[in-house]
Protein: alcohol dehydrogenase
Amino acid sequence: MEAQLPINSEGKPIQCKAAVCRDSGEPLVIEDVVVAPPMSGEARIRIICSSLCHSDLTFWKAKGPLGSFPRILGHEAVGVVESVGEDVSEVKKGDMVIPVFMAECLECVDCKSKKSNLCSNVPFRMSGFMPRHESSRFTDLSGQTIHHFLFVSSFSQYTVVDVVHLTKISDPSSLPPNRACLLSCGVSTGVGAAWKTAEVEAGSTVAIFGLGSIGLAVAEGARLCGAAKIIGVDLNPQKFEIGKKFGLTDFVNPGECGDKPVSQVIKEMTDGGADYCFECVGMASLVHEAYASCRKGWGKTIVVGVDQLGSNLTFSSGEVLTSGKCIMGSLFGGLKPKSHIPILLKRYIDKELQLDEFVTHEMELEDINRAFDLLQAGQCLRCVIWMDKKL
Structure:
């Protein structure tokens, strides 16, 4: 794809269109914003397209300490580098990049280790500002500061992202942008949770609680790992037919289990419990049910869903001691963005990893509120928003 960048814009503010969230739960407003030049360690990106993730929906409704408004949401995207700040050599003007909310600095103990994807130099946190300089690159036309979101803010035609949050696409001609953006968060998270966090083995049994995009991506990851039985747990029976595309072999509807808890049903289906259970909704009660559904001795429960702030889990100390099972968190699927996204890109190009099947809708920036409506109603998996294109 040929990069269409403004002439002589480097070092100058850029005025462009963005979908601004002015207050919690209010419709996004398409307005002109000013995007400042990148500072040291940063790059300014022209966003080509951005897909809508459920986390955008969650923080769109957020109040209290998580509700920093006005803000520009969006964190699943692909774009082209327009300019870079000082001390940036990893990317240059014209490079196609995938911004990711997780950092990989390539220098700290965690980034150098195979055991963690949690960068120590630029740790994950909730902030409305850039990670190094604690300031915003967005203002509206009256000069009011607009907050960033997850260090990406891709619902803007231009954004500024720290280089530790950017993954360069080495061969952009082989990858359509409306598929590349999916690897910025959701699909990578689900596939990675099965591949890297759980390390699902060939011939193993998997149970997935919640069959939204993340849960279906976990199924895709389990399929790629060679799991023999992949059980989907969801209240919507239509999800089973959708899930078959991604490798689901069995389905459990909690509303049709009678007096049996879901964990008992899964234990009966798997001769004692699933080897790997994934909670993909963000509900403490489902984490407990997933843990109960795991096989004793070696079962792993992977927490992928984002629960409400302050939600707690409570396990019996005796059960943890005697069951031999473990519970693990999986932020961004345990993936290191710069190291592992290129692997997923190649697997898509090689027709191993499915991405096309996740995209159910595509629309223009002006229609972004309709995309939010579709996601809230459960009528889409991924909706791709084209930032400067008429469809």
Q: What stands out?
A: The mean pLDDT is 94.
